[in-house]
């Protein structure tokens, strides 16, 4: 009997190698975990993925400096791949992820270990936790969940969404003849055609200038 090329033993062939079967089982287990997350509509955050070559997200609102693309990405799903429609950056507070793919049908965001290390990041796995550091400073931390995958904790800044809302508020404020803030808030409650949030109705520079001039002491 010829020796096994995988484990170098002489009592079996390559196809019957226990090491190969054990490795294959591990791969299937990892795929099944990711598939479970893809099949279930989960919004749990970011999963640290050692098999992903790029960061991926299903949340378009957190994507900054985005550009349209059409790229098929191999992932554990029913069809074997999904389509990324945008690429951009994501601000996680202590660090920024670059070249993040936006995949609308993805059920959970995936953080790539290789993409982190390529940018100088250091990923250290512990028994139940993981730390991600850069320049000897810990920037992200994570914890292993019940499926054995590491969930990353991070403060995501939805900057793009906030900027859009602020622009809408300022635009409607000008259209309505610089109406007062209280009246703007009342209008939001009564109208269905104005799409913005009350907290984004800030102070108008034009009105502030008028107020300052009105209260300017006479010489």
UniProtKB/TrEMBL annotation:
Can you give the residue ranges of the Retrovirus-related Pol polyprotein from transposon TNT 1-94-like beta-barrel domain?
A: 46-120
> One Pfam family of this protein, by short name?
gag_pre-integrs
Q: Where is the GAG-pre-integrase domain?
A: 148-205
Protein name, per record: Copia protein
Q: Which organism is it from?
A: Ooceraea biroi
């Amino acid at each position: 009997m010829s020796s096994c090329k995988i484990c170098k033993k002489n009592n079996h062939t390559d196809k019957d190698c226990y090491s190969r079967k054990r490795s294959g089982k591990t791969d299937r287990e990892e795929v099944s975990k990711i598939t479970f997350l893809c099949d279930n509509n989960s919004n749990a955050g970011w999963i640290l993925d050692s098999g992903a070559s790029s960061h991926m997200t299903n949340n378009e609102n957190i994507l900054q400096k985005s550009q349209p693309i059409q790229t098929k990405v191999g992932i554990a799903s029913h069809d074997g791949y999904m389509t990324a429609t945008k690429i951009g950056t994501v601000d996680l507070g202590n660090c920024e992820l670059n070249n993040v793919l936006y995949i609308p049908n993805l059920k959970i965001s995936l953080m790539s270990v290789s993409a982190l290390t390529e940018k100088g990041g250091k990923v250290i796995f512990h028994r139940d936790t993981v730390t991600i550091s850069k320049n000897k400073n810990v920037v992200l931390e994570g914890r292993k969940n019940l499926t054995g995958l590491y969930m990353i904790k991070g403060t995501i800044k939805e900057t793009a969404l906030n900027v859009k809302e602020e622009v809408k508020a300022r635009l409607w404020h000008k259209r309505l003849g610089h109406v007062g803030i209280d009246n703007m808030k009342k209008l939001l409650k009564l109208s269905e055609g104005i799409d913005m949030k009350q907290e984004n109705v800030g102070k108008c520079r034009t009105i502030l200038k008028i107020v300052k001039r009105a209260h300017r002491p006479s010489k």
